[in-house]
Amino acid sequence: MIFDYSHYFILTIFIPLCFCYNFRNTFIKLNDNENDRPQQIHISLGSNKNDIIITWTTYSSCNQTVVKYGIEPNQLNQNAIGNCNEFIDGGPKQRKHFIHRVRLSDLKPSMRYYYQCYSSDGFQTLSSTMYSFKTQNPANDWNARLLIFGDLGLENGQSIPRIKKEIDDNNVDLIIHVGDFAYDLDSNDSYVGDEFMRIIEPIAARVPYQTCPGNHEHKYNFSNYINRFTMYDMIDGNINNHYYTFNVGPIQFIAFSTEFYFFIQFGFAQTFRQYHWLEKTLINANKNRHERPWIITFGHRPMYCGNNNYDDCTRFESIIRKGWPYVGLGLEDLFYKYGVDMEIWAHEHSYERMWPVYNATVQNGTVDPNNPYDNAKAPVHLITGSAGCKERLDPFRLPLPWSAKRIVDYGYTKLTIINRTHLYIQQISDDLDGMIVDSFLMIKNHDLPVWLR
Fold first, then answer.
1. Which of 122, 200, 333, 442 could form a disulfide with 423 if both were Cys (CB 3.0 to 4.6 A apart)?
2. Do the domain assignments include residue 14?
3. Full-prediction pTM beyond 0.85?
4. Is there a domain that residue 13 lies in?
């Protein structure tokens, strides 16, 4: 009898592939007895400067939503009770998540607090790992240190270990994630999102993790993004994960959704509401310039970019800049009118710093000819979308006049508040073992930007 090796070959290839596939689709599932242990813990700023919001997930019940906390790790002598909501993913399995939220109120400023989250399976109370965070310094010249990035995925999330080390070394006060999470939060019946949230827990459970949505969050009308995060607007005191505002030292940050302009199948009204909210928020921010002279916005898709693709920002009249034909709602004129100092973006998987620019025309600074960001005459745009994801990096085309610096490698941005008049921005390369590959100093000697004086 002659042995047919072709069958053996097929089996040796097919069986390992099946094993790998099953492994990939099951390795992020928890054992049943872990379903109600608090996980995917992350914190965010509350509606006032003395609040912190703690959010986490369980899988089988809302039986208990409690945080124990205190200023000593062995004395968690304060309790806070929160609320829990059921979230059903839109995928084929219609998986249930139970999202727990607890507000810690009236915290002392510049104080380290330790905490544990508690949930129940109906028979026993299950606790999380103990974490700690430090509350904000309320001073308007607080020397806060922020990490800013977008487009961070579960697969090829290259910058995650270095970001965690920054947290371990106590080098970070707050993180801003400028859209596109996990790739994607809803993928594989949201198992990918669950694992991503577990991976970032050692980061996001220790410093406020502020977010805005990107295009990869759009599935099921952004439901995974909306339900998993908790972003409070400091003006109206409500949760709005699409657009909201918060303060850090001398900066008022304004988060918004660029995705309303593109996923119009979910309606038009939200774009009008956001535009009017942005104008109202910017008017209020300008009334408060003496206390917070800097206004910085962040949204996912940029107005300007130099990448070699066909995204909106590669077109001369981008939708974000100029709005829809015959309708408008473009943001460039609005942000210029109310003196936004810096506009931070992601989406492009690269780093790009622009000269101060308005209406596609460079408007460099007025004081130091060697530093165009010294009292700049227009907003400064910055793209930081190279934290790492499965779509890899985006190359550049020939530079356009407003492009000042372009880097194609993995990394993230660090913003350091030096004082009320000086902000220092650095780009950290993960490929080059933490090397600073770009830096610049923004200076503003007056509460208002040059073009509003």
1. 442
2. no
3. yes
4. no
